[in-house]
Prior knowledge:
The chain is about 85% helix and about 0% strand. By secondary structure, it is mainly alpha-helical. It folds into 2 domains: about 200 residues, no CATH class; about 260 residues, no CATH class. Helix 11 packs antiparallel against helix 17, helix 12 crosses helix 13 and helix 13 packs antiparallel against helix 14.
Amino acid sequence: MSPGHHLLQGSILVLLAEALLPLTGIVTAAFLTRSLGAADYGLLTLAATFISWIELAINSLFSRATVKVIGDAEDWRPAGASLLRLHVWISAGAMIVCWILAKPTAALLNEPAMAGYLALFALDIPIFSLANCHRSMLVGRGQYRCRAGASASRWITRLVLIIVLVKLGFSVRGAIVGSIGASLAELAIARYYIRPGWPQRGTTPSAIWDYALPVFFSALALRFLNLGLFLFKMLGGSAVQTGIYGAAQNAAMVMPGIFAAALSPLLLSTMTRVLRSGDPEAARVLGHNAMRVVVGMLPIAAAVAAASSEIAVLLFGVHFAAAGPPMAILFLAGLGLVMLSLLTAILIACGNPSWTLYLTAPLLPAAIVGHFIAIPRFGLMGAASVTAIVTCLGALCGMVVVRKGLGIGMPTATFLRAVLLSGIVYPLVSFWPTPGLAIVVKMAAAAILTVGGFVLLSELKQKEINFFWSFVRTAP
Length: 476
């Protein structure tokens, strides 16, 4: 299988696996809100949020470094053993710190029950960290199908265990144990496919830290670009407006976030292994085509913008119709974040981890200054606009960097065709009212029109169409 076929197949499988998160998450949330009540569900959400921050921090530190180091290695086992040891010690330390802080945190929140919930949920930190370590190694080795299977097992197991345990009367603790059980299931399946050993002694390869530290701070900068909600509230936004903005942000960012999580690590792994095989031109083609995919989604962003109010009403009810306009802008910001995620993956694959920090670090202070200027004057739309402008400018700068530094061409022709199609899609979607679930048909029609338009405008060359159909014919 060619690198392009492998990347396409893996991206589709991982995207389908990660898409189970919002699907099962909606069902789980609906079940828990009805079973636990508002108070207990609020405590569960607080505990889950606190633990997830810790887990995501460890993940941001090691995930991409693991993919790069494992992908570069002729023999992955020594590096895999060192990474396994690092995950064990750091995650175990985080768990102990969480135990120590459980009671003070509960006292700070004036919720004594939180101490027990946090202490129990902290058990998930080392399990989740080890599962993520194995999952990243699978990606680094190019075993994308196995990585997708591990993630799918997590979300399905989580849904089943939470429903069963809460139904049995274990309440909040049952939901927490269900989440821990899901991490165990993912670890077990990932461990079945790849089994790094435990090193008897030895030092951690310096390459791990060379990649881990700059990539970690770069990931934090990208993650905090979504601080518009916090700043909006801090700068005087009412509770109602904050809720509307939060709903718009959640709806607009979920699919771009899943897309970035599915494609970015796989692009990093594939480009790393192609470069190791001595084919830089193939790596440049992979990077260029990945950027084309994101730019080619601009007509979909236009369709979402045109139907944003209808989408908001469908998802959240008529009281959240005002979430539509900021959602339209934030979806464009989501595409900007996807592009930044792919660009940082390209820079890491090409051996330039520090460039990721130089690219993303200036974006956070720019966003903060922009929010302080725009939110008092323009409210919700100001917050959304600043996020979109900063992320899109960052993506543009990133494309210039990879063009100048790595010789990967910018998708200028794709951008012009995408803008033209956006100008066609937007009015068509705007003038086609669709109540309720009929909006799914409208969005599907917009997607078909977009693909057809790209074919007619010769964006998709015959060899690329043949490539896609050959993949469809050979896909199991």
